[in-house]
Structure formats: structure tokens, C-alpha cells
Amino acid sequence: MAKHDTDLSNLFHALADPTRRSILTRLAQGSAPVTELANPTGLRLPTVMRHLSVLEEAGLIATSKDGRVRTCAIVPEALAPMRTWLDEQRQIWESRLDRLDDYVKTVMEEQKT
């Protein structure tokens, strides 16, 4: 688990902000220049650049520069460690709930007799 702790922390931190999530939602439709990403946010360009920096540090986006235009693209495979961790957590909790269900059924059966 410790192997991916930094990756997971960066991913959860990046996804914790609604502005960054909306940027990712837009980028899921295709690559976009920074100015296009900034327009719907109503934020100043330096603020948007800080959000993009967080997304890039988490590996969720890649940027490229052509002249004066910086274009961003989503990197969906970067979500894999998060998905793995969430799947592990779901299995743990489903197992616990199954054991609780078994225990409750056993107690109910004992009360009937």
C-alpha cells in the first residue's frame, strides 16, 4: 500500500477541487488550449495555471506548447492507482458487511429457538 501512497495523495488532492474536476470533464471531450479551459471558470489565467499544475503533477493531464498556445490533454490511465485502491476498499467493506449479515442472521436464528 505504501508504494502508491504519494500517487494516491496527489490524485485525491487533484480531484478534491471542483474547478479541477470540471477541467478534467472538459478534457475528457478532447484536448483544449489553456484559454479555452479558463473561460468557463471565470478565474484569472494564473489561477487556472495553478489548477493545471496540480493536475499535471498528479499525472492527470499532459501539456504541450506550440508557439504561444499551451494545449492540455487528459491522461485517463493516471486514474488506475485510484481505481485499484477504491476496488480494494470496496472488497474489504463488502466482506465486512457480509460477515455482519451472517452474524445478524445467526443471532436471529438463535432467538427463534
Would you kindly provide a brief summary of this structure?
The chain is an alpha+beta fold and 113 residues long.
Secondary structure: helix percent:
55-70%
Order of helices and strands: HHEHHEEH
| Radius of gyration over all CA atoms, rounded | 21 Å
Shape: elongated
- Major sheet attributes: 3 strands, antiparallel
| Strand proportion | 5-15%
Give the low-confidence spans.
Answer: none
Distance between the termini: 45 Å
Overall average residue pLDDT? 94
Number of helices: 5
**Based on DSSP secondary structure assignment, what is the total number of beta strands?**
3
Structural class designation: alpha+beta
**Strand order of the main beta sheet, please?**
1-3-2
What does this molecule look like?
The chain has helices at 5-15, 18-27, 34-38, 45-57, 80-112, and strands at 32-33, 61-66, 69-74. The chain has a three-stranded antiparallel beta sheet. It starts with a helix and ends with a helix. The protein is 64% helix and 12% strand. With 113 residues, the chain is α+β, with helices and mostly antiparallel strands. Strand 2 (61-66) and strand 3 (69-74) form a beta hairpin. It is built from five helices and three strands. The model has no long low-confidence stretch (mean pLDDT 94).
Features:
113 residues; alpha+beta; 3 strands; 64% helix
Record the SSE blueprint.
Blueprint: H1 5-15, H2 18-27, E1 32-33, H3 34-38, H4 45-57, E2 61-66, E3 69-74, H5 80-112
Antiparallel strand pairs: 1-3, 2-3
